[in-house]
Write a structure and sequence with these properties.
There is one protein chain. The protein is of the alpha/beta class and 947 residues long. The chain is built from 28 helices and 39 strands. Helix 9 (285-295) runs parallel beside helix 10 (312-327), helix 11 (370-382) crosses helix 15 and helix 16 (514-526) runs parallel beside helix 20.
Length: 947
């Protein structure tokens, strides 16, 4: 039965989307106030498109048509529009029909759907995005199928339906093609949706990083200031496109500034502008955004501060900025941004405040902090590393790390992705994108604000409730290299960008200092590597000795990587040889060139010239140079983005041959260890795990769904319900997870009756929350073999800890002896379902020794999860004990994962304790909580976040 709320305006259907060409548009329900917009839109549609929509010439809409297409009940009749600049560019409509094709109401579950896209916007992926959203709306309103009549000549529309990935049927009737789409999402439809999302979001970032023209809005009239600095950096970098200086305060007769055209507004520029850098006070930004939007600017970099970082008023100003820019189809870097850099030879863009631009290289860098960005740029530059691109997003109100990962995933100029993050707005999406990217190239992340419990000022994003240790485990599951400091970020990035991945953990150590070699050896053991005893070349070692020793180590199949240690060579006069560092560096590079294929890192102590010699590349220079032969050429510029101004040739990309140098053994070894772990993840991810099909025989998913629906329907609390013991056992039993029953024992006679029913030996324990699982407080009595022992235990329990009403004692049959463990699954609104495992008691509660995996987990995930906790040896025969049945434990974890993945209404599951014996296991305690399922943004139609 419909309620009045069914007819209210559904504002949750509104969404900003990125289209195929990287521009943005807004999708929203059509209302009665849209009559003029609809008429204006229809007038701009070609006669051919109108014919395809109505199957006949239809030059204009009648008043009746306009009323019908703007009046909807948002249940049986729904219309959505795509808008840019407030005007319609496309519409879609569905009408619920019965089996005869006549108008109907629920429970009819089929609807007729029709699209119309303005000709100027066809080919931008508008109809595909609309189909995703109208399908989600239809599912919400109980519609399961779409029917569409399409003329055979309307190939574009047929392709939209065919490529959507839904299960569909096609037939030819009365001169038209009839298509029927089953709207239930499929693996194919989800893959299609995510593929389109990746291409669109990557293209939107590419538009920002490869502009053909840039306007700096807020360029100062005198040298100095933010705008003038950005203008100077653009020119000094040799940007290959057009540059314009814009300031509303320029004198009317000023037509040039610093050699570039000067204008009082963007609208006054006669040519297209692809990118605008806004360096004006926050109160003037809305005017500048409108000026850019009306001129057709494609993207904005907003350097201005005074937004969410300044408080509630600034947060609302930031939200309005995003809404305003997106209404014109523009994406935003910022606000409060530091800028962007693209070192590609065809672009050479430095639209940032960076005092020292990076060389061209293979590292992509994203930061959410300008100060950290400066530090990272300086550190990479000082150590001879180059960048492919740099994005400092500031408050990341629009473009985020997720968008940048989409771009780097297919960017041929980026081999390593480095990210400094202070917040993750959509952790589910981030881990999904990071996993896909990490399968091709390393993704290294350092996260600030780990322990504050909230997002930093300016980052208006959902806050995850899960601990930082859990976040770290989930990132590692996705293949992300998580480091703790920006120094480690640079250290890892240098090694990964210049060295091949190691084939294993076996490390050779050689050098001219026995002490430094021992420090390196200890560091390797600490990081879980397998070092060989250091080879001491003695302090008298010559560059040739280093070359020969390194060549030998690289050629030895017993080693997967080499760490070289070096201290200054002191001659007979007692002074260090100033030329020795450069000579040693050259010798080491020659050795690597003669035996490539294994990573090499160098640890040195105050050797002048060594780091520079290791970072130098034959034939490269810090000045301009032509592209080195054999390097990857920049991607072709899209039409309309060709450079029009010649600049100096670009520096050569970094070539192989660089060797990373570190001032401390621990830093070098830590970077190498991260590379070893990442390489192992890459090898394993090539053959992903699976969920055994044998589980299906003992799982009744449909019965569980009916039970959950009934249990939720019986509770008046919309926040959910914790199941009682009977409901918990019934639900878990449907997934092959038996829970050993307990019987209440309020008095000693009740306890004896329960034991007789269950069979001796039994356990007597309290179920009071403050004493649950607390055998150390006497709340659990085990191995009670007869009635006398049981009565004595019951009397002692109630006399020392409290009365039966408080303790709520129960009797349970004893389980086979084993190791007590705990299995949990919980839903985090931001991160999704998380599966956790540890040993019960002190290891998990006191030491936090838990392992976490995202749901759904595979057989490989749970096997690694069990073995990754620090107390895992207790499961595998520690100190001569009998190993327990870990295959049974792995199966239990898979069943719990499957349970919460199949039923989003299950918001938490706790199995404690789970006693794992030498054969089999026993679940002694269980708790399950149900609640209405949270929205899954990652499974819905594509949409940009709105915080």
């Amino acid at each position: 039965m419909e309620t009045p709320s069914d007819h209210a305006y559904p504002d949750h259907w509104e969404a900003d989307v990125v289209l195929r060409d990287g521009g943005t548009a807004r999708i929203r329900p059509i209302t009665t106030a849209d009559a003029e917009r609809l008429v204006s839109f229809y007038e701009q549609v070609s006669d051919e498109s109108k014919y395809y929509r109505f199957f006949a010439p239809y030059p204009r809409l009648s008043d009746r048509d306009v009323h019908r297409f703007t009046h909807h009940d948002y249940v049986d009749r729904v219309g959505l529009a795509v808008t840019v600049g407030g005007e319609f560019i496309a519409t879609v409509r569905y009408d619920r029909i019965d089996e005869r094709g006549l108008p109907a109401t629920a429970p009819a579950d089929e609807a007729e759907v029709a699209f119309l896209v303005q000709d100027a916007h066809q080919g931008r992926g508008v109809a595909s995005a609309l189909l995703e959203h109208i399908a989600a709306v239809a599912r919400e309103r109980g519609i399961r199928r779409f029917a569409a009549e399409v003329l055979p000549a309307n190939n574009k529309m047929i392709k939209v339906f065919r490529d959507a990935g839904y299960t569909q049927k096609r037939s030819f009737e009365d001169g038209s093609v009839r298509l029927t789409l089953d709207l239930e999402p499929t693996a194919e439809s989800l893959a299609v949706q995510r593929g389109r999302e990746q291409r669109a979001e990557a293209r939107s970032v590419q538009r920002l990083l490869t502009p053909g023209s840039v306007a700096v809005v807020g360029t100062g009239r005198v040298p100095g200031g933010v705008g003038r600095t950005v203008l100077r950096n653009l020119l000094e970098a040799g940007f290959t496109g057009r540059v314009y200086a814009v300031n509303h305060a320029f004198a009317e007769d000023l037509d040039e500034l610093d050699g570039v055209p000067a204008f009082r507004s963007v609208a006054a520029i006669g040519d297209p502008v692809d990118l605008a850098v806004l360096a004006v006070p926050a109160e003037r930004v809305p005017e500048a955004v409108a000026d850019c939007g009306r001129h057709g600017v494609r993207g904005l970099v907003v350097l201005s501060a005074g937004y969410a970082e300044s408080g509630a008023e600034g947060l609302e100003r930031q939200r309005e900025l995003v809404r305003h820019a997106r209404s014109y189809g523009m994406r935003i870097i910022g606000p409060n941004a530091f800028g962007i850099i693209n070192t590609a030879g065809a672009v050479r863009l430095n639209a940032s405040l960076a005092p020292e631009p990076p060389e061209r290289g293979r590292i992509g860098l994203f930061t959410q902090s300008g100060a950290i960005g400066i530090a990272l740029l300086s550190g990479l530059h000082r150590r001879g590393a180059g960048l492919s691109s740099f994005i400092s997003a500031g408050n990341r109100a629009d473009v985020s790390g997720n968008d940048i990962l989409q771009y780097w995933y297919e960017d041929p100029d980026t081999d390593v992705a480095l990210l400094y993050l202070e917040s993750i707005g959509n952790p589910r999406k981030f881990t999904r994108l990071a996993r896909r990217t990490a399968a091709l190239k390393p993704v290294v992340v350092v996260k600030g604000a780990r322990h504050s419990g909230s997002a930093p000022p300016g980052h208006a994003v959902p806050v995850t409730r899960i601990p930082d240790t859990t976040v770290s485990a989930l990132l590692r599951q996705a293949g992300v290299i998580r480091v703790d400091t920006v120094t480690e970020l640079v250290d890892a990035g240098l090694l990964l960008a210049s060295q091949p991945l190691p084939a294993g953990p076996r490390v050779a150590i050689l050098g001219n200092s026995e002490s430094l070699g021992l420090l390196t050896y200890d560091a390797c053991l600490t990081e879980g590597l397998r070092p060989s005893p250091p080879r001491d070349l003695t302090t008298a070692a010559t560059p040739e000795d280093f070359r020969a020793a390194l060549t030998t180590a690289l050629s030895d199949p017993a080693f997967d990587a080499v760490v070289v240690t070096a201290i200054p060579h002191v001659g007979e006069t007692g002074t260090a040889d100033p030329a020795n560092g450069g000579a040693v560096g050259t010798a080491l590079r020659e050795a690597v060139a003669s035996a490539p294929g294994k990573p090499v890192a160098v640890v040195h102590v105050e050797i002048g010239g060594l780091a520079e010699a290791l970072a130098a590349v034959e034939g490269s220079a810090r000045g301009p140079a032509a592209d080195a032969p054999g390097t990857t050429a920049p991607p072709p510029r899209p039409a309309g983005e060709a450079a029009t101004l010649a600049g100096p040739p670009a520096p050569a990309p970094a070539a192989s041959g660089r060797i990373p140098a570190y001032p401390a053994a621990e830093r070098a070894v830590r970077a190498l260890a991260e590379a070893v772990r990442y390489a192992q993840w890459r090898r394993q991810s090539a053959e992903p795990g699976k969920v055994p099909e044998s589980l299906d025989d003992t799982i009744d998913q449909s019965a569980a769904a009916l039970l959950i629906e009934r249990l939720l329907g019986e509770t008046p609390d919309r926040h959910g319900v914790s199941l009682d013991a009977a409901g918990t056992r019934e639900l878990l039993g449907l997934y092959g997870i038996p829970v050993r029953p307990t019987l209440p024992a309020p008095g000693p006679d009740d306890a004896v009756a329960a034991a007789n029913r269950l069979g001796y030996p039994v356990a007597l324990k309290t179920t009071a929350p403050h004493l649950r699982h607390r055998s150390d407080l006497g709340g659990v009595r085990l191995d009670l073999a007869d009635e006398a022992q049981l009565r004595l235990a019951h009397r002692e329990l109630t006399e020392t800890l409290g009365g039966p009403a408080e303790l709520r004692p129960v009797v349970q049959a004893m389980a086979p002896r084993g190791v007590d463990t705990v299995v949990r699954a919980a839903i985090d609104a931001a991160a999704g379902a998380v599966l956790s495992f540890g040993l019960a008691g002190a290891p998990s509660e006191l030491l936090g020794d838990l392992a976490h995996r995202l749901v759904p987990a595979t057989d490989r995930d749970v096997a690694e999860q069990i073995r990754s906790i620090r107390s895992a040896p207790l499961l595998f025969g520690w100190r001569g004990s009998t190993p327990v049945d870990t295959p049974a434990l792995e199966e239990l974890l898979l069943r719990v994962s499957r349970l919460v993945d199949d039923h989003p209404e299950i918001v938490s599951v706790t199995l404690e304790p789970v006693v794992v014996a030498t054969r089999g296991l026993t679940v002694l305690g269980a708790n399950v909580r149900l609640a209405p399922p949270p929205a899954r943004d990652d499974l819905g139609p594509r949409r940009l976040p709105s915080y």
